[in-house]
Amino acid sequence: MQGQTNYSGVNNDMPEENQLETNPQSSSKTKFIIGGLLIVAAIIYLIASSTSKSAQYFLTVEETLQKSAAGELDGRNLRISGAVIGDTIQYDSETLKLTFTIAHVPGDNKEIKAEGGLAAVLHNAVSDPDRPRLQVIYEGPLPDLLQNEAQAIITGYLQEDGVFYADELLLKCPTKYEEAVPGQAGG
Fold it and tell me: What is the number of other CB atoms lying within 10 angstroms of the CB of residue 60?
């Protein structure tokens, strides 16, 4: 049995200090696999943590009010779409404070088409006093497209006082964007 490896994987002819390094290829493969798994795990963690922190919900005014009443929106950055009610627009040019109200616009493309298109939906939303509404406060320059029946897409936070504080404001003129409807989040 001289020069052979016994059942435990130890070479009897090799000095004791060299017996741990009998298969250096196996050791480097193991280190490579472990290192690769650690890198993959780190990448997955970074992707998961960054997407959950920056995730935004795109809601209608009605969905926003319902979820707020249920306590589901606490501290979340939101994106909301609605129709600007023209006679509620107030702007202070000294403080750059803009306040206005938006009315609920359906988020389903089929509903919008059934009502005659986006321009008709925006008009109906502003004209119907029973539609859910949301007051918005935005600080910044007065946008040129801010007018009655414009589609407002706002990003920000709904506070406990029921007012939406917008960080970003995007306006779409209904005559230019009749077919453009933002995707909505399912609830």
Answer: 23
Confidence of residue 186 (pLDDT cuts 50, 70, 90): very low
Q: What count of other Cβ atoms lies within 10 Å of the Cβ of residue 6?
A: 9
Tell me the per-residue pLDDT of 155-175, one tens digit each, with 9 for 90 and over.
999 988 889 999 999 998 766
**137 neighbors 98 (Cβ within 8 angstroms):** yes
Q: Identify the helix (H) or strand (E) that includes residue 81.
A: strand 78-92
Q: Please tell me the chain's helix, strand, coil percentages from 3-state DSSP, rounded to the nearest 5.
A: 35, 30, 40
pTM exceeds 0.70 for this model: no
Contacts of 185 (CB under 8 A, 6+ apart): 57, 58, 59, 63
